# Entry
Amino acid sequence: MYYGFYDPTMLLVLPALLLALWAQFRVQSTFRKYSRVQSQQGWTAAQMAADLLERSGLSDVRIERVRGSLTDHYDPRDNTLRLSETVYDSSSIAALGVAAHECGHAMQEAEGYRPLRIRSKVAPIAQLGSWAAVPLFMLGLFMSWQPLVTAGVVVFTLVVAFYLVTLPVEFDASGRALEQLEGGGYLTTAETDDAGRVLRAAALTYVAAALQAVLQLVRLLLIAGGNRRSRD
# Structure
């Protein structure tokens, strides 16, 4: 049976929530640590990104400064790489690692990397589903109308698919970044290892988000199953 909003099945998502909190702390502390370590070559993140993109035949990608910290992203809609205030003019190992990672996404877009294409197609539905799935599910339980409960589960499954396909996209972008940083002479081998620590810490946040989504889906399925049995 369904126990209300605060029910025992919420314990399922607790480990993922704790992992997400730890991952967020980890990425912030790792970024701060290596933001204080300047690269030997002295490239700023913006300079490095421009040079890396040009070498990769992507000189048409615009590079812009964006407000905030760790708000860096590549936007395929207008072919723009946006670097945060804490990254753009910095020559730290952390800044170069983050900028190279975003360049990796631009490379993925240019070559038609399949997981990125799938994520782009799923993203609008997942964005809608992230706020609509649980209300649909709860309304179905309240009305004792199974089709609405099922609809909530199906919609949330698309949200889970988005988080899962995000993992190879992010891991691949980080792999490209580290290869380019050392191969392009922007960082030494030791510095590239440190940049890898920053990117791995960031990747953990995506792993935590995916785990949260998967466990939440399991929770919804358990509640739906219990609710169905209680009506039989």
Q: What stands out?
A: The first strand starts at residue 62 and ends at 66. Confidence is low (pLDDT under 50) at residues 1-5. Helices lie at 14-35, 45-55, 93-111, 114-143, 146-183, 189-231. The CA atoms of residues 105 and 173 lie 6 Å apart.
